[in-house]
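seq:
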Amino acid sequence: MKIKLSILSIVMIFSALAMNAQIANSNAVIIYNDPQIENLVELHIDYNEEFPLIDGYRIQLLMRAGNTALDEANQIKDEFEENYPEINTYVTFREPYYRLRVGDFRTRLEAMEFMEKLKRSYPQAWVIKDKITFPEFTKYKNTINYE
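struct:
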């Protein structure tokens, strides 16, 4: 009987120690990953730094050719920046046209939504597919990230 009691107490002590060890390390998470994954992530970061443009949409406000086209594009650009300082503007030249494009929209829906605001002031505006700089994410009140 004493032997059974001794064995039972030893088993209980080892069980208690094992449970205590598990509880002490319960917050530790060990991640084993392949070093190739880190190499791929670094390559992806380098690529994005070298080529920061992505496919997206802009709103084209003007497309003109001629001697006064650049002056007209800059005038409309200044007017637009005064009304919408948070939106990026781009004047580009592809022979023979000067183009004024605004915004960096990831989806056509975002561009269409903003274009509806512009239709009164710029009735010839239209959405165009373009390479864009990656826009900042906006934080909305109903999300976790809202500060």
